[in-house]
Amino acid sequence: MFNDLGHSIRWEGKRANFKEEIEWACRFLGKEDRIVWYLGIIQRASLIRKMEEKPLSRSLKSKIHRVTNRFSMQQVQSEYLCDFKNGWEHFRNVQDMYEHPDMLNYNFFSKEDQVRTPKAPDQVLIDFGIMEKKIHEAYKTERYCNDGSSFIEFDDNWRWFCVIEGKSKQEANAMRHCGNGFGSPNDLLLSLREPIKNGNIELWKPHLTFILNDGYLGEMKGYANQKPKDKFHPYIAKLLEDERIKGIHGGGFLAKSNFSFADLSIPLRSQVLEKNKTLDFDPIGEWGKLIVEVDQSQSWYLINNVGNNQQVISTSPPLNPKSSSYLSLQSTIMSDGHAHLFSEAWCSENLGVLGSIHFNRRTTGDDSEKVEKLLGHSFCKEVKEDLLEAESTWAKVLQKDSIERLIRKKPILFRNTSIEKVWDHVGCCSSFASVFNDRYKLNSRAFEGEGLELETFDSYEKLGQASGVGWLSRLLSNCQCKLRTDQNIDLLQLGWLVLRQGIKGPCLFLFGDKILHFIKTMELEANPERISLFNEIILRFGPPDRRDLSRALDLA
């Protein structure tokens, strides 16, 4: 299936090793047709990528056509980049827990005009999500459990229970999740349960499900795979104080819904670390290089070797496959006289270029300035995301004031943002001029709300020379005219680009309502090595009228 395709594929930052993918498919998909379906996604992507290499053998060209001719490149790429594995491992747990016939008999292929066509991976996940919802609806009245043994007891009679089998159908029914059905070897299922009296019968109602393996906590969820609520934090803190808990790994299905050590209040964090001094609680680690200090208790550090690599990579994929450097916002936690560094946020980094940012807790308005401080530092050269795109991980943290300051002080950060979007965000102001100048290699100056002083000249002689027009250069060579401050000369009869008096001398002034029209018409991005903007304008719109200009400058 993967002959002549090497050992792996990388596309848009996602890497797939063929041997590892085959092993995963055999383990988690089980049925032969499902394995073939999944590996077909990897194969089609690999063949499309192979087309970029030349020359191709005749047999490989034939294989590429045979396997991919019914699929567009966009479809192949979309199916390859779909995060199917993470979603499917969850549904495989549900399937194994309930053995529901709809799931067991589900066909990963459809028939269209008698042709067997593989379903899109996101459609498979949607279909299994619908089936899971129906299963849980059937068990919605079952909200209690009686399996497992006591692990930690509390004064109010709540308890953490441990199910040594590592999975529980009772827990799955009561909590509306997979119950860790497929699980991993040596998993233990920990369940926080509330005692409920029903006459003389004591029932146990679960509220949290945590998975423990070799002392490390993996999935840590509340009801229906939601993030645990704050009211359960004291119970979680007591669990973490127990020395049987070595650390926190996270991961699994809907990893962002897991409990995070950052969710605890600062007093609870300190309390935990006083009792369990060796707890491995931070996914980044404490051994980094200081980049910028935010305040006395928080700084951004550069970390070359992160601790919990899987959790960190899943939240902010590395920019360089050969190295996984990260910038981390770390705060100091004091516990029993010892200072611990705790990672509140991190982003991938490569030679000053930053990837997506992830906060390990709920963000607040104060976080905007902390992020602004990092982005404004000389270490940061570029951000891979569009900082004005609503779905950008950075835009979700940065507030308007921070963005406007960054636009003005560091326009290089907005090279992945369209000039139209910058205009819509700030309008005609010095911030816009900063991006405009950086983008088009100009030296314009903004007049708030009025327009841009595009190009200023020391004298009319310099203006004439910049035009590249012989007669205009000769006409202006001895011109000593000084325009009134309220005087505009419609140089090219455009109505929106005029000659007026600047601070040093004559200048070309562009009115604000036509700035975007000017950019589009001039195709400025296609001419980064221009000799003179004035010359380009004349080539695009034609020279001034000689007689009108002479009269306006009193040169007749």
Largest sheet: 6 strands, mixed
- Which percent range describes the beta-strand content? 15-25%
- The overall strand count is 20
Structural Rg: 32 Å
Which spans have pLDDT < 50 for at least 5 consecutive residues?
none
User: Into which percent range does the helicity of residues fall?
Assistant: 25-40%
Instruction: Please report the number of helical segments.
Output: 20
Global morphology: elongated
Label the structural class: alpha+beta
Mean pLDDT: 90
Distance between the termini: 82 Å
Strand order of the largest sheet: 5-6-7-8-9-10
Topology:
Layout lengths: L7 E4 L2 E4 H11 L3 H19 L7 H11 L4 H9 L2 H15 L2 H4 L4 E4 L2 E4 L2 H18 L10 E5 L5 E5 L5 H7 L11 E12 L2 E13 L2 E6 L11 H9 L5 E2 L17 H10 L13 E5 L4 E6 L5 H7 L9 E11 L2 E13 L2 E7 L7 H9 L6 E2 L16 H10 L9 H8 L3 H11 L4 E3 L3 E6 L3 H8 L2 H7 L20 E5 L4 E6 L3 H8 L10 H9 L4 H7 L4
Parallel strand pairs: 9-10, 15-16
Antiparallel strand pairs: 1-2, 3-4, 5-6, 6-7, 7-8, 8-9, 11-12, 12-13, 13-14, 14-15, 17-18, 18-20, 19-20
